[in-house]
Amino acid sequence: MTAAYLPFHPDPSKPRFQVPAGAVDAHCHVFGPAAQYPFAPERKYTPVDAPKEKLFALRDHLGLSRSVIVQATCHGRDNSALVDALRSSNGTARGVAVVGAGVEDDELVRLHDAGVRGVRFNFLKRLVDDTPLETFTDIAARISRLGWHLVVYFEAEDLERLKSFLGELPGTVVIDHMGRPDVSAGVDSAEFQQFIRFLDEHPNMHVKVSCPERLTRAEPPYDDVVPFARTLVERLPDRVLWGTDWPHPNMKSHMPDDGSLVDFIPRIAATEALQRKLLVDNPMRLYWPEEAGR
Ligand code: 0GY
User: Fold this and answer.
1) How far apart are CA 172 and CA 82, in angstroms?
2) Greatest extent of the chain over all pairs of C-alpha atoms, in Å
3) What is the 3-state secondary structure (H, E, C) of the chain?
4) Which positions make up the signal peptide (predicted)?
5) 258: CA distance to ligand 1 center in Å?
6) Residue 264 to residue 85: CA distance in whole angstroms
7) Whole-angstrom Cα distance, residue 169 to residue 150?
8) I need a surface site. Which of 85, 135, 136, 244 has the fewest CB within 10 A?
9) Over the stretch 38-67, which tens digit does the pLDDT of each residue have?
10) Which of 27, 153, 208, when mutated, tests ligand 1's pocket best, judged by the most ligand atoms within 8 Å of its CB?
């Protein structure tokens, strides 16, 4: 377990880009506070506290309206901090939980009532111990009757191994951080083209065009990531989501200014129509379907 971890930006800039009304941050986290919600013993990193109050204040500062809070590995399968944040959000936050195959039905209902609408499967070895694929298949079957969807986090080099498993997952699947491409290889690389083909062949797959700060091999303003995100936004305008990834766990090279991350949006979604789909229509359909399209 390592504590080498940069704290989130203390004073993010005000973005120049004004997001459309009702914009959703579809990928962010809450951590702790550890005194109230201790981190999981099996965690691979120990973050600094990133409580709900800070998350909601940042959202307001950036001009965003709603948040999708994703359970991070440092909290394991204890979704208490997530549930607490959802319950105090006045309906402006929804969640993605982490559960085991043995989760009780009552617990799923409790999570649903709090605002959870999906579960996350994480395949990154640096973040989690291995889970048998059959376990994930069982969980997918358990949650589909709640109308939830799946969020999957893997790296580009894992796609070949995982693609038949992922391709058979039922219902909507959201892929985190563009499937973590090697951006130094370029959008024409065999690897990224394979990813695009996979998305073309599976219309249930959605993708988060998030985390330029993790994917870049350069520095802000992340020029090398733009072609990847832009390609996906233009090719799959109805299947892309965007998020800040605040408070950016495990960032060791630099900590992004969240205001600059918002200013990244018009570079990857060039028209108002694309921005609206990315920031409002698509996440609303997945997380607030009862209000979508109003
Ligand atoms: C992210 C990315 C990371 C961490 C986690 O659950 C997590 O701990 O997802 C990472 O280290 O790449 O989406 O926050």
Assistant:
1) 22
2) 48
3) CECCCCCCCCCCCCCCCCCCCCCEEEEECCECCCCCCCCCCCCCECCCCECHHHHHHHHHHHCCCEEEEECCHHHCCCCHHHHHHHHCCCCCEEEEECCCCCCCHHHHHHHHHHCEEEEEEECCCCCCCCCCHHHHHHHHHHHHCCCCEEEEECCHHHHHHHHHHHHCCCCCEEEHHHHCCCHHHCCCCHHHHHHHHHHHHCCCEEEECCCHHHHCCCCCCCHHHHHHHHHHHHHCCCCEECCCCCCCCCCCCCCCCHHHHHHCHHHHCCCHHHHHHHHHHHHHHHHCCCCCCC
4) none
5) 16
6) 27
7) 8
8) 135
9) 999 999 999 999 999 999 999 999 999 999
10) 153
The model's pTM is 0.97
Q: How far is the CA of 163 from the centre of ligand 1 (A)?
A: 21
Res 4: pLDDT: 57
Which entry of 49, 113, 129, 245 is annotated as an active-site residue?
A: 245
Alpha carbons 110 and 121: distance in angstroms, whole number? 20
Q: Which atom of ligand 1 is found nearest the CA of 176?
A: 13
Q: Which amino acid is at 10?
A: P
pLDDT in tens, 104-143: 999 999 999 999 999 999 999 999 999 999 999 999 999 9
Residue nearest to atom 2 of ligand 1 (CA): 249
Q: In the annotation, is 245 catalytic? A: yes
Q: What is the pLDDT of residues 164-179, one digit of tens each?
A: 999 999 999 999 999 9
Please give the distance, rounded to the nearest whole angstrom, from the Cα atom of residue 30 to the centre of ligand 1. 12
Cα gap 25→279, rounded to integer Å: 7
Which atom of ligand 1 is least distant from the CA of 177?
Answer: 13
